[in-house]
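Postdoc handover notes: sequence design on the structure in folder B. Input tokens:
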């Protein structure tokens, strides 16, 4: 039965009915889930339909089932090139070429891949227009006149995921409880994360985003825990990801400089009118306090504060003890003198020390 479906799929390819071909191959895979050729052929159909992440997943499955199948590497290389995953594509194509040295398609694609890799290092990114810049007010008016479309039902993903990031790393968490480790497959490309969960008796879960930025696959890792799968992606560049998945609406990625964020730096807090430099204000206040000319008790209090601020621990203890025990009439800095006895009050001449009753 699977062979009949495979034959019909080949006829659909000849007639450029790629959706039908993919559907027929999916039925064949359901009957023969361990036949690598079926996955490799479905990868070709997904490439034709521009379902590139699905094509990479099919090619990877074919390679897993039959590591010596050249066309599986050809499909993976082709899909990765379209995804601008040139390093991953080249690695797959070189492996395929070693298995099929007489196939000129591998040689030609590797040359093209080398050219694209070189261009990717020399091309200057061009600022793209934002969506708001492309909107014509007349178009908005015309859209408002269109009849309201009925809401489209969206299938809720089987497992929830979220991510957070550091300057050099992105951590992706997939909340899947009590999944056996052998049922989970995680693969890393230059800009692709592929996660598959195949639990017997349940529908397969596949999460294959094209990532916001490039990563270093060799430095990425994952861990299967009792309640989740934690995936750590090493960024190829220290830029801020505004989302987990790739989008063409980003103008310029924000580059994060790790050395610029230190504990000694303080943030500038926004006000309603302008941004203030609080470090500068603090320094100015300290300078004004230092240069301030005071008279009488204010000058005396300032003098005592400066003594206390620069004093050692014994001097501070002496000042506190003498001041408290004398009811504010004596201030000593000699701990040896006041530490072993109670300090009696000493009011100024002509004044009497009075104890308050509560």
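Designed sequence:
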């Amino acid at each position: 039965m699977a062979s009949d479906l495979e034959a019909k799929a080949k006829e659909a390819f000849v007639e450029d009915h790629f959706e039908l071909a993919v559907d027929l191959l999916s039925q064949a895979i359901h009957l023969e889930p361990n036949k690598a050729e079926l996955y490799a052929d479905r990868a070709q159909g997904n490439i034709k339909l521009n379902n590139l992440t699905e094509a990479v997943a099919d090619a990877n499955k074919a390679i897993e089932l039959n590591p010596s199948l050249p066309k599986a590497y050809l499909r993976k290389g082709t899909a990765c090139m379209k995804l601008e995953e040139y390093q991953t594509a080249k690695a797959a194509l070189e492996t395929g070429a070693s298995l099929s040295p007489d196939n000129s398609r591998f040689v030609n694609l590797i040359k093209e891949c080398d050219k694209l890799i070189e261009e990717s290092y020399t091309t200057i990114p061009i600022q793209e227009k934002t969506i708001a810049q492309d909107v014509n007010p007349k178009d908005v008016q015309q859209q408002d006149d269109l009849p309201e479309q009925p809401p489209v039902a969206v299938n809720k993903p089987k497992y929830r995921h979220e991510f957070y990031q550091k300057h050099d790393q992105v951590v992706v968490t997939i909340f899947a409880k009590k999944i056996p480790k052998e049922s989970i497959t995680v693969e890393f490309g230059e800009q692709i994360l592929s996660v598959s969960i195949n639990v017997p008796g349940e529908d397969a879960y596949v999460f294959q985003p094209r990532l916001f930025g490039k990563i270093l696959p060799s430095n990425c890792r994952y861990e299967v825990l009792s309640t989740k799968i934690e995936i750590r992606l090493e960024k190829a560049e220290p830029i801020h990801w505004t989302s987990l998945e790739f989008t063409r609406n980003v103008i310029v990625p924000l580059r994060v400089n790790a050395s610029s964020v230190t504990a000694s730096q303080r943030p500038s807090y926004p006000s309603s009118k302008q941004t203030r430099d609080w470090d500068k204000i603090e320094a100015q206040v300290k300078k004004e306090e230092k240069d301030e000319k005071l008279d009488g008790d204010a000058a005396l209090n300032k003098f005592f504060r400066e003594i206390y601020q620069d004093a050692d621990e014994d001097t501070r203890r002496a000042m506190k003890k003498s001041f408290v025990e004398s009811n504010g009439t004596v201030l000593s800095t000699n701990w040896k003198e006041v530490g072993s006895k109670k300090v009696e009050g000493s009011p100024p001449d002509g004044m009497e020390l009075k104890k308050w009753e509560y």
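Context for whoever picks this up: Confidence is low (pLDDT under 50) at residues 123-135, 259-273. Don't rerun without checking with the PI first.
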